[in-house]
Amino acid sequence: MNILMVLDSYFDYYQMIKNCPSDSNVFYFETNLTKILFLLYRTEINLVIIDSAAFEGSLCKIFSLIYECNRNIMILPYNSFEKTISKDNYISYCNFLNKSVMERVSPAVLTEYNRFLSYFASDYEIDSESAIKKLFNMLFLKSNRTADLRELSEQVFGKVSEKHTNTIYGYIFRLRKALGDDKKPPEIIVKVKKGIYHLNLPVSENPALF
After folding, report:
1. What does the pLDDT look like over 167-198, one tens digit per residue?
2. Residues 6 or more apart from 9 whose CB is under 8 A from it?
3. Nearest to 10 by CA among 118, 139, 154
4. Taking CA 26 as the corner, what is the angle to CA 22 and CA 27, rounded to the nearest 5 degrees?
5. What residues contact residue 191 under an 8 Å CB cut-off, 6+ apart?
6. What domains are defined for the chain?
C-alpha cells in the first residue's frame, strides 16, 4: 500500500507513521504542489492524507486532479474547518468525498482509510505552532539531532532566560509523552547530559522526503 502524506510538520508525520501498516510505502511532502503532482502521476498512490489547514487553496486543485486522472485514490483531509464539526459529521464529510471510489478500492485500502478516519475524528488535535512540535522539528532538522536548553528556548520563545529554560523541561516531558517515550530511561528524547537532548529515531521511522 502506498500512502502520500502532505503535512506541515515532522511531528505530525511521526505521530501518523505509527498507525501505518509495516509493509506500507509512505511518501512525505511538505506543501510542494509540483512534487506532489509528480508523485501522484508516477506512483500508484492508494491513500492521500492532507493537512488542509496548511495547504489552503491548493487543496481543491489536488482533489480535482485526482478525480480527473480517474484513479482509485482515497483522500483524507484533516484539520482546518473539519475539526470544528462533530465527529459524525466529519466522518460523513470524508465518506462523501470518497464515495465514488469506495467500492473500487481493495479491502486493505479501505481498512487503512477507516483506521485513519477514526484517528482524525477522535479528540486528537493538531496545533502547528505548539511548543512540542517546535522542539521536535528543531531536533529533527539539526544535523546531529542534538540541542541544548538555550537553543531550544531560543527556538520556542525567541529569547533565553532561566524562566524559559525551566519551561522547556516541561515541554520535553510533554513531547516524550506524546511520542510514547515513557520508558526509563527514555529512548527517543535522550538526555545526553545536563541540559542537552538528542532525538533518537529508529531508521524505519525517518520520513522519505522528496
Report:
1. 888 788 878 877 778 778 888 889 998 889 99
2. 51, 128, 133, 136, 137
3. 139
4. 170
5. 185, 197, 198
6. 2-120 (3.40.50.2300), 131-200 (1.10.10.10)
